[in-house]
Amino acid sequence: MTVIALLGVKAFWLLMVWLAAAIAASWLSERKGYGEKAGLVTGIALSFVAIPIWLVWPAKRDSRWKLQGPFGRSGGLTLAQLRARHAEEGDER
After folding, report:
1. Measured distance CA(82)–CA(76) in Å, rounded
2. What angle do CA 88, 91, 93 make, to 5 degrees?
3. CA dihedral for 83, 67, 88, 35, sign (positive or negative)
4. How much is the pTM?
5. CA 36 to chain centroid
6. Higher model confidence: residue 43 or residue 88?
7. Residues 6+ positions from 62 with CB-CB distance below 8 Å
């Protein structure tokens, strides 16, 4: 009975790692402008390999990643304000 219990603990932790990788990939893809579903699918299918993939994948022009940075530091401006400023400047990031 102990063997089954130990197997259950390992399976639980592997499940938690798999779900955390899917959540992280979903968040990264949404920040880069591709939507949450693309990251969720890659996170579920590729597990922890999806996180480095989304880190090197290029961000879209008007994405949160380009306008606010990787962690969302925008100086107190909303995303709409940043997009308006970006359009006025004609910046080709």
Report:
1. 10
2. 145
3. negative
4. 0.77
5. 8
6. 43
7. 33, 83, 86
Question: How many other β-carbons are positioned within 10 Å of the β-carbon of residue 83?
Answer: 13
Instruction: Give the 3-state DSSP-derived string for 10-31, with helices as H, strands as E and coil as C.
Output: HHHHHHHHHHHHHHHHHHHHHH
Q: What would the two tokens of residue 2 be? A: 């102990």
CA distances from 6 to 9, 16, 19, 20, 81 (A): 5, 16, 20, 21, 53
pLDDT digits (tens, 9 = 90+) for 1-10: 666 677 788 8
In the chain, what percentage of residues exceed pLDDT 90?
Answer: 48
3-state secondary structure of 68: helix
Question: Please, are residues 11 and 37 in contact by the beta-carbon 8 Å criterion?
Answer: no
Helix (H, G, I), strand (E, B) or coil at 34: coil
